[in-house]
Amino acid sequence: MKSLKQNGNMILLIFIEIVVGILLLINPVNFTTGIIIMFGILLMAGGLFHVIQYFKTNPEDAAMGRLLMRGLVLMLAGAFCAFNSQWFILTFPVIAVLYGIAILAAGLNKIQMAADLLRLQYRKWWWAAVSAAVTILCAVTIISNPFTTTDVLWRFTGISLIVNAIFDILAAVKNRGGRQTQEERQCIVEKDE
């Protein structure tokens, strides 16, 4: 049970990667448009909340908190997202590079994890290293943007999310019992001698 709680965030992230990857494979442009519209609606709701808070707060605190301005900015940004989602699709190459940078950061984080597992003497640390390599390869491919259409790049992104999730699952399963005891390390050293 403790292990499940500790790995709950990782399991949720892997599940989200798989679901988003599949949805991107099925219909990438409509899925992306839907996400942008939902994000816009959430921004507008957050902006409305700030505006309401502004009028509920006493005048001195409201003036200091700038809640009205924040609310109006969020509402405008949300309206732009919700009603101009195609703008994001047209500017996709820039968004793809930003996404590639985010994936690259995740790959660098996986390198850290692989190094930590190696230093902690987990037997299957190399699964995390393979996962890091695949993630970085996908990130470099996305950043270099060799594709000409949004649809193809989104599908590639979907495939890379699914592949990354599979490697994350394998790394988690292979390292589950993983840390060698001092006796096991000693036994290995004696066999090598």
Describe this protein's structure:
The protein has 193 residues and is mainly α. The chain has two domains: 1-90, no CATH class; 92-193, no CATH class. The chain contains ten helices and no strands. It has helices at 2-6, 8-26, 28-56, 59-65, 67-83, 85-90, 92-119, 125-144, 150-174, 182-192. α7 (92-119) runs antiparallel to α8 (125-144). The chain is globular and about 60 Å long.
What labels would you give this structure?
10 helices; single chain; 193 residues
Biggest sheet descriptor: none
Low-confidence stretches: none
Overall pLDDT: 81
Tell me, what's the shape?
globular
Class by alpha and beta content: mainly alpha
Report the total helices.
Answer: 10
Radius of gyration (CA) equals 23 Å
Number of strands: 0
Strand content: under 5%
H/E element string?
HHHHHHHHHH
**How many structural domains are formed by the residues?**
2
Summarize the structure.
With 193 residues, this protein is mainly alpha-helical. It contains 10 helices and no strands. The radius of gyration is 23 Å and the shape is globular.
How does the SSE layout of this entry go?
Layout: H1 2-6, H2 8-26, H3 28-56, H4 59-65, H5 67-83, H6 85-90, H7 92-119, H8 125-144, H9 150-174, H10 182-192
Helix pairs in contact: 2-3, 2-9, 3-4, 3-5, 7-8, 8-9
